[in-house]
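Subject: for your reference before the review

Hello V.,

The reviewers asked for a structural picture of the protein, and I figured it would be easier to keep everything in one thread rather than splitting it across files. Below is the amino acid sequence we used in the manuscript, unchanged from the supplementary table.
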Amino acid sequence: MTAVTPATGMPLRLPAAVTNPRPLVIGLDVALVTTGVAGPGWTDVIRTGNRRGEQRLLCLVETAASFYRAADFVVIEGAAYSKANQAGHDELAAARWMVRCDLIKRGIPFAVVTPHARSVYATGKARWEGETSREVKGRVRDAVALRYGIDCTGPRRYDEADAYVLMAMGMDHLGHALAAVPDSHTRALAGVSWPDSLEVA
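And here is what came back from the structure prediction:
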């Protein structure tokens, strides 16, 4: 989705008289080549290009920080442990932890959401019988379009949709749900380890 985002100059702190009382929550679906990122009303993708190793990780964290540096809260997708032996697992784990460490350094609270919880919040189920993981991601993308009016298109549409659901979960947890979500979906919130220090509205 084409949009003005924090990284491209969207104002993050408005005068008190016109500030929306909603917190700024950012969702991150961290990956080595393309990371989905989202905030209320927009999605984007972080691309690391041809970089490898430490240079790729540094690029990812620095670019991600351009989106969340003024955020009140960040929600990150955690590891899919069923894929623990996939190529690049060690580097991907490092990427997630580097983002988390950067958030701690900046004093920004965050939560980590499992892929299953993200799917449940979006579609009501973690898995759909007879469907591949890609087909389930398609359901998540469709749910984002129908529930929030955010039409994620293009080759990285699933990354963007995943990030949007993560952000929406954070908003819901804080008492600022972006849309009505049925109980069969919001049950996913109970399984997330939300930070104790974050004040819920």
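For the response letter, the relevant points are probably these. The chain is about 40% helix and 15% strand. The longest helix spans residues 89-106.

Happy to draft the paragraph if you're swamped.

O.
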